[in-house]
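The records we work with from here on pair a chain with its fold. Taken together, the tokens spell out the fold as the letters spell out the chain. The record below shows the convention in full.
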Amino acid sequence: MPEGHVYILGSRTGTLYTGVTSRFDQRLFEHKNGIKSTFASKYHCNRLLLHERFGDIRSAIAREKEIKGWTRTKKLALIIQQNPDFKDLAAQYGWQILSPHQNIADQK
């Protein structure tokens, strides 16, 4: 069973997006570059505000469903608890928005 990751992305205007994946690096790359995510791309949700790692994907899916059922206020409280300055945590993973001419290997 693969590990799972739950994350919350935000836009500069305050829109939040909650997601789950078993391939965090690839998914973060996709979000940072507006690939394969209609909602996140449309609302420019490309700042990683929260990341939780789980030993298996089933636990991550359950957590994502839990968070998605929360109010915006409760989601913001969770983010503030773990990331009070609302920093883009993607920088911790060495990610930034890439140009279309760069590849994943250039980022790491």
